[in-house]
Request: fold
Amino acid sequence: MRIGADYYPEHWEKERWKTDAEMMVKANIKVIRIGEFAWSLYEPEEGKYEFDWMDEALDFFGKYGIKVVMCTPSATPPKWMIDKYPDILQNDIHGNPKLFGTRKHYCFNSETYREKTKKLNTLIAKRYAKHPAIEAWQVDNELGWSNTTRCYCKSCENRFRSWLKEKYGTIDNLNKTYGTTFWSQTYRSFEELNIPKAGACYDTCHDTQGQNPALLLDYYRFCSDSVVEFTKESVDTIKEYSDLPITSNLLDAAINSGTGIDYFKLSKEFDFVTWDNYIEFQWGKAKPETVSRDHALLRSYKKKPFWVMEQQSGPCGWSKLGPTPTPGKLRLWTYQSVANGADTVVYFRWRACPFGTEELWHGILNHDGKPNRRYAEVSRVGAEMEELSKNYRALMPRARVAIIKSFDSEWSQSIHRQVEGLYYDSLLLDYYRPFWNMGIPVDFVTAEEDLNRYDLVLAPMLMMVSDEGKKNIETYAQAGGKVLFSFRSGIKDMYNNMLTETVPGVFADLAGVEVEDYDPLLEKTTATTGVFGNGMAHMWCDIVKPVTAKVIGKYTSDFYAGEACMTVNQIGKGEVYYLGCDLDEKAMKMLAVYLGRKAGIDMDLYKVDGVEVVDATDGTNDALFILNYNDHSVIVSMERSYENMITHETVENVVELKPYDVAILKEAN
Ligand code: GLA
Ligand code: ZN
Reply:
């Protein structure tokens, strides 16, 4: 457990490095990440390389015992390269090349760019693999940042055609699968296929231009695969020279609402994953449960502790600023990360840069570089972590509940929303939130992975599933697992076509129900009652007919009053629940309590508003985190006696927390 800072030696006079290093050491900053945007410094002209500046920086900071995460700089191809090889540029959905001027302007499928990247990465890996200061690698930066996963250029179109050929073998097979008899879209060869750019239809067709949903989903998958392939190439290049762990910094689901990259797949390429955690900035404020959900996703991609590679450390924004972190918040956010599985928390950035697009973006230090309030708070955290690491290795929450996260379903639902206001990720958050409120950690899983370590598995809007995934869920239920499917689960095949089996299609046998009629609600609401108390549905109502299932929830309004909205079906030793509608927050909370208890989980834990409780362990030692997001003090009652692992005081009956304060408790023996 430790802290770090994102540092740019190239932004500062060398005379300043000493002050920076000394201040870092004093604050217990153990690691810096460097070099992710430095291409034009390494290669100012084609084939002319300069490494001295980096050699010097590494030697310098290394001498202070500061460890380094060394980056590959492919996020920012330099101007000379773009001018000489314009085919490198990514094309937007209208087919226009993106322009030089910010970053991530390259196409993942450009042969030229792949070659150039490989060449420079090889030189960097070779030169620095054995440098004693380096402890890990980061490839690129924020893959998929700002809509850059999906490119619409010629190289992508060509590669996509080969990708399709590989997948479908013959064009007849593709035609059949895509249903190209609809609207006269039959293709005679793979060469006839175009990537689904904008322009097929405007106005009524909305964001996907009304194109074939199977084609769109394939294109989304292809783009995700392209990022993974590009990344793998960089990872493999480093691996040729270095045994050190390799990662990249992923993005949150909240603000960036999906990068279009299947993070489960991408994470396989890495030894550990990291992400960038901005909470209150120009673009809004994330709620604590949303941030916690993002941490949960991160620890879930590899089921391992992760890092925060960029943790907000000051007021942030590009053109305008968000609020300055209230005293205590940097510390609170850091411990929220640690509680949820982060092993190292790196603050972005050490010091605000006086020039460039991010001249307003504050780091720990202001532009003036003087020790300030935030530096003092970070130093406090650094000292505490030093102390805590004597007792703990990386902590992971003890999750007994899992939510299935399917990128296929997310993309399919982004192509056809099903009803206004319905978003895959928000629906998953609706299922995550009530458990979060009650201090029950939740992991995210794929349908195919081992589910047996969880007592309860939730599958909101799992629109499509592989045969393997379906079997896996069934085996889990047979053996005694509890599973829940929501409306719109199981309705599609893996090609993004609607199934002709009665809803919920693939899962009809497991759920033991049939849905012949459903009501997308738009502006109206429907009342319900059941094991979740009384609730209101706002988006969707399936009129559920039990076949082998038992009814445990009903509608009480509209023409389907008296019909089922929720059921339970016995499968082997387990139970499969079907919830045919969305529910309001209060009903979701009661539903979580009901399901949790059925799964044998103690659901009466901690219920103080604005307080996150995380039950974590490092495998040997337990830690109960209590995090107060309120701007007022709270008192949380405790059933046992604990030692506060920061203050070493004994905690009996209650723990009192000041605004934004944190307690890390260990049960007293
Ligand atoms: C991202 C990037 C950083 C920086 C910060 C602030 O997360 O990775 O390079 O741009 O945001 O905008
Ligand atoms: Zn492209």
The chain has a mean pLDDT of 96. Residues 213-239 form the longest helix (27 residues). The pocket of zinc ion (ligand 2) is lined by residues 90-91, 107, 109, 151, 153, 155-156 (CB under 6 Å).
